[in-house]
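Notebook B, p. 112. Complex prediction, attempt 2.
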Amino acid sequence: MRIISRRSIAVAALLVVAALGANAQSAKQYEVTKPIKIEWWHALESQYAPLIERVVAEFERQNPLIDVEAIYQGSYKDLNEKLIAAHAAGVTLPAVTVANTPYIAEYGASGVCEVLDPYIKATKFDLGDFGSGLKVASSYGGKQVSLPFLISTQIMFYNKDMAKAEKIKLPETWAEMDSFMQKASKVSGGVTERYATVIPGWDQWYFETFFLNNGIAIVNKDGETTDLGAPAAIAVASKLKQWCDSKYAYWAYGKDASSVMRQNFIEGKTFSVIHTTSLYNMYATNCKFEVGMHYLPGAKTRDSEIGGCVLLIPRKNSQEVKNAGWKLLSFLTGKEVNMLWARETGYMPTRNSVTRTSEGKAFLAEKPAFKAVFDNLDHINPRIQHTAYSALSKIWMQELAKVIIEGGDVAQAMKKASILIDEALQD
Amino acid sequence: MRERDTAVDAARRRASPRVRRERFKDFLCVAPALAFFAVFVYYPLVDLFRIGFTNWNLIRDEYKYVGFKNYKWLFKGSGLDTWLASLKVTFSYTFWEIVITLVGGILLAALFNREGKAFAAMRSIVFMPKYIAISTSAIVFMWILNDQYGFLNYVLGAFGVGPVAWLNSERTALTSVLILTGWRVVGYGMMIYLSAMKGISKDYYEAAELDGAGALKRFRHITLPLLSPTTLFLFVTTFIASMKVFQSIDVMTAGGPYESTNVMVYWIYDLAFVQFRVDRAAVVASVFFVILLAFTAATMKISNKSVHYDS
């Protein structure tokens, strides 16, 4: 018995040594062994340039073999065009690139991204420190094809001074929205002096949360149909139109809608705006009043969705570039860099080791408005993933904007949209 | 005639080695240009038609041939309404750009066809917008045309008009883009017409004046007919350029609101790069190519009969 035990121990020890050796070997295959120059494509505008320079300089200091060129490629849309063109050509690909979260489904399905699971396993990258929603949002088909980078969610920015002075109660539920709209707006003789809020209609991400919280399936489980033509969806759309028709709110639509909406809020022409948390610093810096953040009202649920961008490594790169890319990617998604972004922009901390610890409290002490987000971390869900989601959102945005701004029958518009969306989903 | 052709052919066949060497040299001279065209024009064109028969999305490695599925979508499916609307918008835009270029150009040319520093300065001012990048001009015009903070509505407001949602209403969006287009192209039309006007012999005008023709008659019966080659040139080049309008639409309206400025090239771009439907984009582009080719050929054929050359 003792002999067997000794043998067992010896075998077990050998297995452990072998496993460690294999792991070391495995980690070694992702090492960077000679000098390399790589590109990092991003969509961060010029105000973030000094921060990017600092981050890249620190990375290069820690990884002297890797020379990083950070290249601003325009908006997420511009970057997407350049990335898929480079992917199709198979050349001039960056080692690492950001991508807006809705693109991950199509990129994942089409094999644009390198699957990161082997890198994560071999280098023992702490993936578990990200919230489960973030992991799902950056994966496709159960594979980790990207990692969360600059993460935001939908929020209502409001004028805290006005709220205090006029005792305006912010809506916690969809049912409270009517009274909020009346109380927060100033409409006399059919002319609006101040809107209660502005609803961004230029991107369905902002208003789809109202539909989701009312229990409407934007894409049904079959992946081929939508419930946007159902009575519940028509009721939500009708309510949105009613607020706009009553001039309590307006539907922000068009290429310059975002900048006009920001300006309206800064100038006090609207009590609140629905926007992304990533713009907190912009609002806080430009507004002469105290800016508050309020989590969007709920109905059957009170959830919001993940926005912002993830980081990925294009699959068609050489292994040397991928290895250097992984070094950069794991550095950029690390806790220290993430906190730097969170402090100096409006993006959220992504790591549980921050959000759920004393570090999170310290962050909230710096930016107390983020309490609205921190209190709801478990309710921030991944976005809907479907390869036809771009087509869906375009149809939906267009039909909804037309009926709200130009007028018409909401039920008819939503039914028309749902027919077109069904076709797009099924194709 | 046929006998003569046969004789020429025979002579060609009997070309001496020296002539053949010369021809080979000629071919070598044009070969780089031909190779360039083959790689960057003809091959993509052929591939465009091929992609139209697949379900490729540009980023997937594998795809299938799906026959006429994408053509059915365009001519019988949900693509038809958008295609017809887009054609209408594109032709409407083109029509107005041609009108602005030709009519505006010729009127301004007639007005500024004088000597003197003041006229030279005015010509430069009118022509200058052509040198400014479209994206830059478009951003400035977005500010001018903004319904809440725009300069145009500010001015109109002083007269009790508006505010007008220039870029955000389907009734005014295309007009708004055409305002930018007009500002850019009218000076170009003027310069082309001006250079052509300078080439018209003064003898014609002096003779007409002696015959008692007034300024309007001289313009109608001398200037206009002798400018017809220039008009043809401007018509064809403006037609092709305006049918391919993209940048101003991309910056100012993104094809909206509600597809009221969804010109054909913007729609192709949207299908390919936003909706990841390169297969459908290829079909739309192929059909559009055929339409453009047919229109250009027809224009050339018709205009050859009505253009006057001063020779």
